[in-house]
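$ run holo --ligand "magnesium ion" --emit tokens
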Amino acid sequence: MIDGWDAAFDSIEDLISIHDNNFCILKVNKAFSKSVGIPPGKLIGRKCYEVMHAANGPRLSCCHKLAIEGKESKTEENFEPLLKKFFQVSCSPIFDNNKKIIGTVHIARDITGLKRAEERLRQHSNEIEEQLKVIAENAPVFLLQLNRQGHIDYINHAFPQFESDEILGKPFVNFISPEFRPLFLNMLKEVNGEKKFIENELQFAGNHNEPPWYRIKLSPIYRKRTLDRFLVICTDISEIKGKEFEIEKQRQEIIHAHRVLALNEFASSLAHEINQPLTAILSNAQAAQRILSQTDPSLMEFKEIVADIVLATNRAAEVIHRLRKLIKKGEVEFIKLDINMLVNDTVLLLSSNALIKNKFLKTELTPGLPAIIGDRIQLQQVLLNLIMNGLDAMVDAGPEAKDLVIRTSLKDPKTVVVAVEDSGHGFPKSSLGKPFDHFFTTKTQGMGLGLPISFSIVQAHGGQLIVKNKPAGGATVYFSLPVSKDD
Ligand SMILES: Nc1ncnc2c1ncn2[C@@H]1O[C@H](COP(=O)(O)OP(=O)(O)O)[C@@H](O)[C@H]1O
Ligand SMILES: [Mg+2]
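-- output --
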């Protein structure tokens, strides 16, 4: 059984002392006298600031003073130069029965270990911050911090296009090319708790011919679970983009070259198509000459002949016009198109070619299909390739193989499908279910580019192209195209 308070206070490691209103020590525990190295007897009656702080008077922030003035407990943290230690000191006023303050009790806890650990932590985090700064400054990417409004607070190093002080404090969106601004503003809006980051490729503003391309990764930074800032990582991808554009240009060149070469294949049938109206024009003109040589020429007959000549001329002009459009090397232009009209146009171009081969092109077109978005010439090229392939296969299969049918239908409300179904020998089994190899051909005059090019055109249109053999013989090539959004 512990006897009395003294034994209890002496067993506490904190320094405990009782003082009168005038800073004089009235009582101390063992830990106190041990710390200052003075026996308890010699401490009584001495001013605490002399003993503890080796000073002639209390310090300005002395919590003994503050506790008496404020009539409540006060706490402070001190470094005691004599003891070379940090203390957390709490002073509480002692009241007599009349609620008058008659002194204070001090409890001083040694927090030196804690302080040193704190200091080490601070140094460590300063070092980490320094290292991060060095890493950021030398990073091959641009790192920016934006405030919640999207204004630039920090940038690791200057962009080649802009000086750092030119952009600090300004909205980041100002430095993005106007056409990409809505995209970036949307990113700011969308990046939230569920989305850890959003990435997009966009162009910066600038008065260059080809403004630089950047990949922008935007991440939110939270403080106490609320959005505080944004981190933006910008990687210059101008070079990659340049190469992508170059590859795309080459792709377009190949597509065009193949189109011109494919036209070669049915040039003779086109000549035939033009020859027909030309022959009609000639015979009509000769008839007109005959009428004119008569003594009483019939004006009525003459009018009819001229009308026939106009019709035939228009027909020839129409064929030439269609052909010229196919040969032309224009910009790829995505517009709203009626797929059935496209099929009909292509069939018109190829029907005499089919006739020469003793084959028939038939169409089964679903009326009222929604418009699709695409490049007219390239989609026509796909149809040409597929129909020519079908005709080739049917020629190989012999005279029984007669019909090639082109069907259009709606697969679902968002997808139109075109099927080119022939009655030829079907695809070689080894080539089914595989991607289309460039230069794979089974024809002596073939190039093996028709299918890969058609595949890449359909893919660039957001559709798919697949081939299937029919159980009863022949093949069907299907390609799908997404319908225009506002249809
Ligand atoms: N409708 C088809 N029926 C059977 N085989 C086909 C058909 N279409 C294409 N093929 C096969 O695929 C090969 C590649 O076709 P393609 O890429 O158009 O090149 P090419 O027509 O120059 O050979 C053809 O040589 C043929 O073997
Ligand atoms: Mg082909």
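-- notes --
The two ends are 94 Å apart (CA to CA).
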